[in-house]
Amino acid sequence: MLLDHCRRHPLIDVRMNWRFESLEQDADGVTATVRDLTTDTSLTVRSAYLAACDGAGSTVRRALGIPLSDGGVADGEGGGVRELPAAFSVTFRSSDTENLFRHGYFWHYFTNRYVLISLDEAGTWAFHSLRQEDFDPAPADPAAWIRSQLNVDLDIDEVHVTSRWTPRYLIADRYRSDRVLLAGDAAHQMFPSGSHGMNTGAGDAVDLGWKLAAVVNGYGGPHLLDSYEAERRPVGLRNMTMSRRHLDVHFQFMRLGQEGATPQEQGRFLAAQPGENTYEGIYLDYRYTGSPIICPDGSSEPRADLLRYIPSSWPGARPPSLVLADGDQLFDRFGREFTLLDTVDDGTADALLAAAAERGLPVSHVVVKDNQVRDLWGCDLALVRPDQHVAWRGNSSPADPFAVIDRIRGAADGRTPQEQAAHS
């Protein structure tokens, strides 16, 4: 479905079975060489910027010479192991819901030997074996092997792909090299526990996407792309840590079984652990604290909760939405680029809007005079970025509206005088 959407999109040229080979950068752009593996012919592609989304073994990252480190996450907690064991994965299709759900409906099914995951709730499944003795050597018939592991005569319609891999907890030391930027697994790698790798990669794409668009369309300043690493790398580290914490729960559960714990003891251990997909605060409440393109207002950062998303209009946070009196979602009123939410409509927004217009920053002025919105947001004005993070808020026009606009579009350095001196 996603691939079909990409093929229909006028700005996307889908090319299968191609391989990146090399790149060169200059002051005006990037020249990449790619090869069509079907015809064994090469093609040179010229672009203003290049986003490396080519996975954990990223050849783009290697070409740039950007190293990886464990970020202090590899050791784990609670008796985890530094060297993670190999895993074997099979992605397959099955409509045999009678056997799959014989113990009840589920998305993720964990045991001390394997994990079974519904990928789309429409018949596509991933089976991950976590014990090397179960897949060494690799099974010649993956479907029969899965049936033996599950001890169920499961009807498997098709095996899509198999892979033997070794999980790692690694993060790129840098997310950018001039006009080339890393995203997704090319920038950070983690075990798929909690789906944090996928969610972190999606967040990278959203952050990098609007910033590249801003620069290409002329209203993004020279420091805007520098903010990508400043915002996303801390989120990558935080999510790696949480993924490792989830994995350590698996390790401890497996060890209990190996040590002869009773089912009741194993059950009590699992009951004491929050489900790894229940961490709303990790998924939704990441805040770009200290970002050079966020305008702090001097207030303390609101309380955070790993298990709950606590919306806030605090600069750098993801703000609250709600259903308005007419049935509209507040966020559905926002524009495609920046949005200035105005809860008073008394002319206070005029200076900021004028500064944005003069700088060429596209800002939609959205007036919502609703006491519930005003109480929930806690401010008269809030300037919201295309990725729905708050860039600035206030109850009056800023003393220097141009300084605000220049900072949030990356035209100003965004660092304190002390930080500038440290880097000079």
List keywords for this structure.
single chain; 424 residues; alpha+beta; Glutaredoxin; five-stranded antiparallel β-sheet; four-stranded mixed β-sheet; globular
CATH architecture of the domain at 286-422: 3-Layer(aba) Sandwich
Adjacency order of strands in the biggest sheet:
7-8-9-6-10
Shape: globular
Measured as a percent range, the helix fraction is 25-40%
Broad structural category: alpha+beta
Low-confidence stretches: 415-424
Q: Provide the residue-averaged pLDDT.
A: 91
In CATH terms, what is the fold-level topology of the domain at 286-422? Glutaredoxin
Order of helices and strands: HEEEEHEEHEEEHEEEEEHHHHEHEHEEHH
Which percent band covers the strand fraction? Answer: 15-25%
Number of contiguous helices: 12
CATH class of the domain at 286-422: Alpha Beta
**Most strands sheet:** 5 strands, antiparallel
Beginning-to-end CA distance, first to last residue:
50 Å
How many beta-strand elements? 18
- What gyration radius follows from the Cα positions, in whole Å? 24 Å
